[in-house]
Amino acid sequence: MSNWNEIAEPGTEERALLDGIDPARLPRHVAVIMDGNGRWARERQQPRVAGHRAGIDAVRETVETAARLGLDVLTLYAFSRENWKRPRAEVSTLMSLLKDYLRKELDTLQRHHIRLQVIGRIDDLPRAPRRELERAMEATRDNAGLLFCIALSYGGRTEIVDACRRAIRDGLDPDKLTDADLAARLYTAGQPDPDLLIRTSGELRVSNFLLWQIAYAEIWVTDTLWPDFRRRHLLTAIADYQRRDRRYGGLTDRNRSVDDAPAAVRG
């Protein structure tokens, strides 16, 4: 909250959006499906990798804005398990961009007290970007601000299967297995579930992203392609989120108990 004055200049569209947001009702966890890099490049008659490079600016602005707003968690869907099927040159470029981003942005993460975490099968990644990720996570592990999660080599179904395997290895009685037991073995264990799921490029699907965690998340879709996504889009999504009458299996935000699901679905 102390950094809100740094988010937008007075008299701008962004400031008007910011002034309409209630700081007491921010989503704790915002998750984003970053889609549209390829389409952005195609519309400009450029190779797909140009869209991925352009998308770095959107990542930077979104992360910094989330940190200044005081969100607890921001999760970005950067690379799915299915993405390994893309052409080798494109995958190689994506891994190189990831490595470069971490090197260039580490100082920014530290300045904003952001803690970096990866969800997904990090062992699938090539050695160089994996080392860079491990270095950045170690360097930021004591930061107490925004938890910035990057979903890499991630799949929602794979995550649930991995959680089930952990439960079996831990010797849990299948007849006594609870939601909490499984949630404690997900990649996101200890995090609040997403309150708000944002998808760019206008596509109306969740693409195997956080399938367990978004059971009650509010969903906000924009036609904006990811490389064009900026601060005003994030603020618009949050403002829209705050206007919704959130429902939890029949209960609203006003009358649900602490035992109800931690995220919400639009009624």
What would you say this structure looks like, in words?
With 267 residues, the chain is of the alpha/beta class. The chain has a single domain, classed as Decaprenyl diphosphate synthase-like (Undecaprenyl pyrophosphate synthetase, 3-Layer(aba) Sandwich). It is built from eight helices and nine strands. The strands form two sheets. Strands 3-4-2-1-5-6 form a six-stranded parallel β-sheet, sandwiched between helices. A three-stranded antiparallel β-sheet has the order 8-7-9, with no helix packed on it. β7 (246-248) and β8 (251-252) form a beta hairpin.
Task: From the alpha carbons, calculate the radius of gyration and give it in angstroms.
Answer: 19 Å
- Please count the helical segments: 8
Q: DSSP strand (E) fraction?
A: 15-25%
Give a quick account of the main beta sheet: strands, pairing sense, barrel closure: 6 strands, parallel
Distance between the termini: 29 Å
Mean pLDDT: 92
Assign the CATH class: Alpha Beta
Strand order of the largest sheet: 3-4-2-1-5-6
Following the backbone from N to C, one meets helices and strands in this order, namely: HEHHEHEHEHHEEHEEE
Structural classification: alpha/beta
List keywords for this structure.
267 residues, alpha/beta, Undecaprenyl pyrophosphate synthetase, 6-stranded parallel β-sheet, 8 helices, 40% helix, disordered C terminus
List the helices and strands and how they pair.
Layout: H1 13-19, E1 29-33, H2 37-43, H3 48-69, E2 73-80, H4 88-111, E3 115-119, H5 127-140, E4 147-154, H6 156-169, H7 179-183, E5 196-199, E6 218-221, H8 231-243, E7 246-248, E8 251-252, E9 265-266
Parallel strand pairs: 1-2, 1-5, 2-4, 3-4, 5-6
Antiparallel strand pairs: 7-8, 7-9
